[in-house]
Write a structure and sequence with these properties.
single chain; mainly beta; Jelly Rolls; seven-stranded antiparallel sheet; six-stranded antiparallel sheet; 7 helices; globular
Length: about 325
């Protein structure tokens, strides 16, 4: 029954800083033509915002139903006893046509107190315009007092480390780390299943209503974790934490899905194609490989010569 890839309908999200790369680069089809879409939620189990697929007989099925009713077959025996009542990750593609706000996500130690959910994430840079930047971590010597003063005077950007990523780079963003995605980047984001963001600074922008966007300075200051470390761009290496493992892969290494037999795996294609049976995944596609998929079917997987993808799993 589970010898097929489970691919979901993306959920496009309008964002002030978004553009049109999701449609032009990946063929995502927005319901509202001409709008600026900044995020495509590819794997999502958040109440009414649900990733929906179809079984081979055409029956629609949500990610939540797969997690609650078919967990062992789809996600593997190792996750059968997982405590989360919903699928614990959220996977997105982001099109940053403008700078995102400088923000912070709450650690588990303060999330509930602040009325939010903890969020650790990682970024994979799919495309980067020349000179594109990410902001991650505080500069040396910047403490709470300096940051609070910078928030009052509009100089938060001067307190944050600046990195210049290239396509293929990865960056780990633990909860409590100040960060922002800069303009000119297309990013695959793998994160805890959370949508809690506290804005520390938003470049003095106004929203669609013409008013300054809401900031959460006090909440942000409460969330910042000085032990989060200094962020470093990596390339070609697995990014792992207690919530997820993300391994970049390419055609040169082969598409050996049999290595994942019986285990949870999501494929996120960045370039090229992956074919399995009568199904094809192209750039911008995410699909769950059911843990119960047979070895025979797994061995049919073929990647195009230019293929690059992410292999995402839950430890």
């Amino acid at each position: 029954m589970w010898d097929f890839l489970i691919k979901f309908q993306p959920l496009l999200q309008k964002r002030l800083w978004g553009g049109h790369a999701l449609e032009r680069r990946f063929g995502k089809q927005p319901a509202e033509s001409g709008a600026r879409f900044g995020e495509s939620w590819e794997i999502c189990d958040r109440g009414p915002e649900q990733s929906v697929s179809r079984l081979q007989d055409g029956t629609p099925v949500t990610l939540h139903e797969l997690w609650t009713r078919h967990r062992e077959a789809v996600f593997g025996q190792a996750l059968a006893g997982h405590a989360s009542p919903r699928y614990p990750l959220l996977m997105k593609i982001l099109d940053a046509c403008d700078d995102l706000s400088i923000q912070v996500h709450p650690p588990a130690s303060v999330a509930a107190e602040l009325g939010g959910e903890p969020k650790t994430e990682m970024w994979y840079v799919a495309a980067a315009a020349p000179g594109a930047k990410v902001y991650a971590g505080l500069r040396e010597g910047v403490g709470r007092a300096e940051l609070e003063h910078a928030a009052e005077t509009g100089n938060v950007a001067g307190c944050v480390r600046v990195l210049e990523p290239q396509a293929g780079d990865c960056l780990f963003i633990p909860s409590g780390l100040v960060h922002a995605i800069g303009a000119g980047l297309v990013i695959y984001e793998i994160q805890q299943n959370s949508d809690t963001t506290f804005r520390l600074f938003d470049w003095n922008r106004v929203g669609a209503d013409g008013r300054p966007r809401e900031l959460h300075v006090e909440e942000s200051l409460c969330c910042i974790d000085g032990s989060a470390g200094v962020p470093v761009l990596t390339r070609g290496r697995e990014v792992a934490c207690e919530f997820f493992r993300v391994r970049p892969a390419c055609a040169a290494a082969g598409c050996r899905l049999e290595e994942w037999a019986g285990m949870h795996l999501t494929l996120a294609v960045v370039h090229g194609t992956i074919r399995l049976g009568g199904q094809e995944l192209k750039a911008g596609d995410f699909a769950i490989v059911p843990a119960a998929m047979s070895l025979e079917r797994r061995r049919e997987a073929v990647a195009s010569g230019d293929a690059e993808w992410l292999e995402v799993s839950i430890p």
